Amino acid sequence: MRDDSATLIPAALRPHLRSLRIHARHPPPAGPLGQNASRQRGQGLEFSQYRAYEPGDEPRHIDWKLFARSDRYFVREAESEAGLAVWVIVDISASMTQADVAAPSIDKLSVARSLAAATLEVALREGDRFGLVLIGGNTPMSVPMGRGARHRDRCVHALTACRASGEWPSLASLRPAWERIEPASVVLMLSDGFDSTSAAFALQLAATRRDVRSIAITSVDERDFAMRGAFEFVDPETGARIEASAPAARASFRERFATARRSLSQQLTSGGVCHTEHVLDEPLQHSLNVALTGKRER
Predict the structure, then answer these.
(1) How far is residue 142 from each of residues 201, 266, 289, measured CA to CA in Å?
(2) Are 67 and 74 in contact (CB under 8 A)?
(3) More confident residue, 66 or 16
(4) 278 strand-pairing partners
(5) How many angstroms separate the CA atoms of 12 and 284, rounded?
(6) What is the structure's pLDDT at 229?
(7) What is residue 233's predicted lDDT score, i.e. its pLDDT?
(8) Secondary structure letter of residue 45 according to DSSP
(9) Lowest mean pLDDT, pick from 90-99, 131-140, 212-221
């Protein structure tokens, strides 16, 4: 499989990855080797449970005897001594196509892809298990938990191939994704934070012993609203249109946008989520360091 990580991770970010570490904010469940070892579901030696087969699972992990009896595919999960379990959740709803007027080639999704690919690279280097969830187009997609370079390539390929469309599905529709993310996992959510369901999902994960970090991606135009002249603003998810004069709307928009972002930050942090904001013109390494260490610096 072709390695697309070199394309997704900017050259300016790569040198910083060597010093980045993923720190768990909550101690993992104690395993047979003590506090620093954890027993996670994976392909280990001791059977844990069955779960339904999902695209991307290794065929060799299917229980063929159970298939013969039930005519359904099930994967055997087992307990294994492991490091962290890291999940990266990427918002691929239509609003992630937004880019700045001055830099139309860099949209929110491209930045989310870079942050996600960099996180996978750090997890790979540290020997952690990792998985990917893409939420948008009204149906979540996932790459199951795994480890190693080939699994990193599967995740990166999914990131490269995904396209932003639709809206977030309902919270009830996200239950299968929630169930896949086992307690004590480190979860990094990359979104613009415009859909209330994304915040609700992060809070649900945090309330059920997942170690959740969130990066809200914001455009420079949203932060500064420095456009000039008349504009027609179009909601890419609903198609709603608003005509406005940029100078006349600037002060009101800045105030309302800043208030909404403060409210989002307060809502998430009060629910145990480590939250930070990333603006498209900022270096990626700072926001990534905040998210991976779990320290609320902003």
Answers:
(1) 16, 29, 24
(2) yes
(3) 16
(4) 217
(5) 9
(6) 67
(7) 66
(8) S
(9) 131-140
Six-digit token string for 115: 């942050």
Q: Given pLDDT bands bounded at 50, 70 and 90, which one contains residue 80?
A: very low
What would the DSSP string read from start to end of 81-100?
EES-EEEEEEE-SGGGG-EE
- Three-state secondary structure call for residue 6: helix
Nearest to 109 by CA among 121, 92, 132, 134: 92
Q: Is 91 left (phi over 0), alpha (psi -120 to 50) or beta?
A: beta
Residue range 260-264: average pLDDT?
Answer: 95
Q: 40 forms bridges with which residues in the sheet?
A: 80
User: Which residue type is seen at 41?
Assistant: R
Does the reported pTM lie above 0.70? Answer: yes
CA angle 104, 235, 111 (to 5 degrees): 40
> pLDDT for 134-171, tens place per residue?
999 877 899 999 989 999 999 999 999 999 999 999 99
- Euclidean distance between CA atoms 225 and 74, whole angstroms: 51
Tell me how far CA of residue 105 lies from CA of 97, 165, 287, in angstroms.
10, 17, 21
Hey, which residues does 188 pair with through a beta bridge? 88, 213
H/E run at residue 48:
strand 46-52
Q: What φ, ψ does residue 16 adopt, rounded to 5°?
A: -75, -20
**Local confidence band at 36 (pLDDT 50, 70, 90 cut-offs):** very low
What's the CA gap between 191 and 91, in Å, rounded? 5
- For residues 119-131, b (16+ Cβ closer than 10 Å) or e, as one string? bbbbbbeeebbbb
